[in-house]
Amino acid sequence: MALPASTPSAADSRTVGLGMAAAITAFLLLPFGDAIGKFLVTQDMGVVQVTWGRWFFHSLLLTPLVLIRYGKTALRVPNPALQFCRAAALAMATVFFFWSLRHIPLANATAVLFVAPLLVVALSALFLGEKVGPRRWGAVAAGLAGVLLIVRPGAGGGDAANGILQLGSALALGAAICFALYMVLTRRAAGHAPPLVALWWMGIVGMGLTSMIALPDWQPPTDAQWGLMAGIGLVMLTGHLLVFWAADRIEASALAVTPYLEMVTSTVLGYLIFGDFPGMLTWAGCAIVIGAGLFVAWREQVASGRNA
User: Fold this and answer.
1) Which domain holds residue 252?
2) Count of structural domains, the chain
3) What is the DSSP string of 210-250?
4) Tens of pLDDT, residues 216-230
5) Given a cut of 50, is residue 3 above it in pLDDT?
6) Cβ distance 281 to 108 under 8 Å?
């Protein structure tokens, strides 16, 4: 007898399970690239040069896959201006994030970056005309309050003075803003190009933009530095490919939970490699930001269900 339509088949269950496994693996893996970047920038390698290396090896590894799969059609992307702005926003987010890692622990920078999905809510309301209810606005406000616990303006001396954010925290927040802009532009660009092609174009634009900034002050990398930059590109590309593969197999509501696993790897790597461990206020702020992000994801799922 045939199974009811509402009952998932064994094949469907395996597909969902594989999708979740891919997403979990991706977000546990991605902080390894961040940790390599932090190691390089704290060893006095230029931030933009490290970012260039990340996008150069990303593009070098992905180009054969894209050309084999799509051929010359990959070069013809609809609405190239939108794709360029999207890639530029992500490239700037990478620069700000690696720059922040020169000043603050890996876990702290990662926690601040979690505010990006909340900023997307505000940006979508302002620039895409999406309707945002009071509950989601409340979650955005709560998430921003959580960020204040993480960055603690005026605390810690050094870079902080007169209530101004520490430089590293300000840079991490800049990365979150740029990443939120990238996410908003991704919504606008949805369907304009296959995800793999869009990912390739992000690498090409990121490499081009950072080349123009890095070349005037270029310092020839050592063999070890070349290897580490290649490691960043490989880790980041693998993580993004796993996320894309998972997104085709599991619902967005399930995928929305998995990015917060980055905090686990970031904390472990930060402690083992750099001797950093977040304090209680950072953990409290992170919990608030994650809770607000999950609430927003749930509300968006509810809203999309009503509009289906």
Assistant:
1) 19-307
2) 1
3) HHHHHGGG--PPPHHHHHHHHHHHHHHHHHHHHHHHHHTTS
4) 888 999 999 999 999
5) no
6) no
